[in-house]
Amino acid sequence: MAFEWHRMHKWEENIERDVTEGLEEQICEHYGVEDVLELTSEQMDEVRAFREEHVSEYSPMNWGFSNVIMRYEDENYEESEE
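Below the sequence we write its predicted structure tokens.
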């Protein structure tokens, strides 16, 4: 019988969630905020710069950075539209 991994996508979702939550904790602790949405645009630029300089494009950490950055940009886009 060939190898099978049923519901592997659930493992991937769990890993992505863990990476994102861990990154959010690190960011919040570093900047002394309760939520990444409280960051200034300069602080988010620092997070982006860290990703560019230190995170390989093949790293699973990119999931977390993408999620955090997208959440921040989505929230700030909505606020700028009001």
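The chain has one domain: 16-81.
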